[in-house]
Amino acid sequence: MISLGLEPAAEECSRAGCRASASWRIEWRNPKIHDESRRKVWLACDEHVEFLREFLGARDFPLEVLAVGAPASAPASAPAEGTP
Ligand SMILES: [Zn+2]
């Protein structure tokens, strides 16, 4: 068997055929098949982040675009909201 090189590349763009290193992480879910806590993650390079975001947005999937390396769903500099 020949390895197809499918070992999970840490930070490679998810766009088909693109091998560029990713700068962005798109977290999304399909409400029809994923429950509230599920998140799919796509990685995107600068060139494809718009394409992938629009691809998902066109399907009305909830999504969030984060910089690679940013903590999930919580920008480090954002003040905490609703803390008693
Ligand atoms: Zn790309």
Key features?
84 residues, alpha+beta, 1 helix, 11% helix, globular, binds zinc ion
Structure commentary:
The protein is of the alpha+beta class. The protein is 11% helix and 18% strand. The protein has 1 helix and 3 strands; from the N terminus they run ββαβ. It has a 3-stranded antiparallel beta sheet with strand order 2-1-3, covered by helices on one side. The protein is globular and about 40 Å long. The termini are far apart. It binds zinc ion. The site of zinc ion has 8 residues, from loops.
Summarize the structure.
With 84 residues, the protein is α+β, with helices and mostly antiparallel strands. It has one helix spanning 49-57; strands spanning 24-28, 40-44, 63-67.
Mean pLDDT: 83
Q: Unreliable segments (pLDDT under 50, ≥5 consecutive)? A: none
Trace the largest sheet across and list its strands.
Answer: 2-1-3
- CA radius of gyration is 15 Å
Please outline the major beta sheet.
3 strands, antiparallel
Structural class based on helices, strands and sheet pairing: alpha+beta
General shape = globular
Q: Helical amount among residues, as a percent range?
A: 10-25%
Count of extended strands: 3
**What hetero molecules are bound to the protein chains?**
zinc ion
Q: In percent terms, what proportion of residues is strand?
A: 15-25%
Order of helices and strands: EEHE
N-to-C CA distance = 58 Å
Helix count equals: 1
